[in-house]
Design goal:
251 residues; alpha/beta; Rossmann fold; 7-stranded mixed sheet; 8 helices; 45% helix
Length: 251
């Protein structure tokens, strides 16, 4: 294999997308999610036992939204965060959803009950004015961005003073026994589910456990949020510690 300038083995992002970085990560993740968009909702329901809807509802409640609030869901994917957000802000509220993968947005657009305005946008370069939203959410998206610190800075920028931010994502259980069991399940059963839906789904759901192992820890994500300016950052675990909710506020 060729060597990079820093003497590390050159990564083939097509074979191991979880190792891609920077602009290459943006490209391969975008392509991967575009390919699995039609089966995304079904597989997510299977591997979480549809509990991800409950976790989103808990996240929305933590935002303490009021009717008429303005909210942005970053990395909105197929739009599963948008319905509970709409319920919280009411018909008079303003709801935006953004994602960098057009096929995912096209599926979200077919769920009209959320009545959100959807935009093709990068979480690291949001096309919104500063201090615009009362709350920002992201579900299983921060792990996939090429620059986590920049994504947190952008979420902070578009929030109004006093605004709230929540992020749901995968995590590793704190308990070492549960962590070992989780690694076996995620490394074996989740890719098995993916293979039932074809080659691209198999690749994507191999990416999920591998990218989780490489993802920042709870403390590192908290530190990244605090460096972006968030205060009162808290965490809450779900699903035996395999899922974590981070919440922060803009002073």
């Amino acid at each position: 294999m060729k060597k990079t300038s820093n003497c590390a083995t050159e990564v083939n992002p097509e074979a191991a997308p979880w190792l891609a970085q920077g602009g290459e990560k943006r490209r391969v993740v975008q392509q991967m999610f575009a390919a699995i968009a039609p089966s995304y909702d079904r597989i997510n329901g299977l591997i979480t036992f549809s509990l991800h809807h409950r976790w989103r509802q808990i996240a929305v409640r933590s935002l303490q939204l009021q009717p008429g609030d303005h909210v942005l869901d970053v990395c909105c994917g197929t739009g599963d965060f948008l319905e509970p957000l709409r319920n919280a802000v009411g018909a008079e509220g303003h709801l935006e959803g953004s994602d960098f993968c057009r096929p995912m947005l096209e599926i979200a657009q077919k769920k009209p009950h959320h009545r959100a305005h959807l935009s093709l946008a990068d979480a690291c370069d949001l096309p919104y004015s500063s201090s615009r939203f009362d709350a920002v959410t992201v579900g299983w998206g921060i792990r996939n961005v090429p620059d986590i610190d920049q994504a947190h800075r952008e979420a902070f920028r578009v929030l109004k003073p006093g605004g709230r931010f929540v992020s749901l994502d995968t995590a590793q259980p704190r308990n070492p026994i549960l962590r070992a069991v989780s690694r076996w399940i995620s490394g074996t059963l989740i890719p098995w589910f993916g293979r039932r839906f074809g080659h691209e789904a198999s690749r994507a759901y191999k990416y999920l456990p591998e990218s989780t192992l490489l993802f920042k820890s709870r403390v590192e994500i908290q530190a990244s949020m605090e460096a972006a300016g968030f205060r009162n950052v808290t965490t809450r675990d779900f699903f035996f510690g395999n899922i974590c909710l981070w919440r922060g506020e803009k002073p």
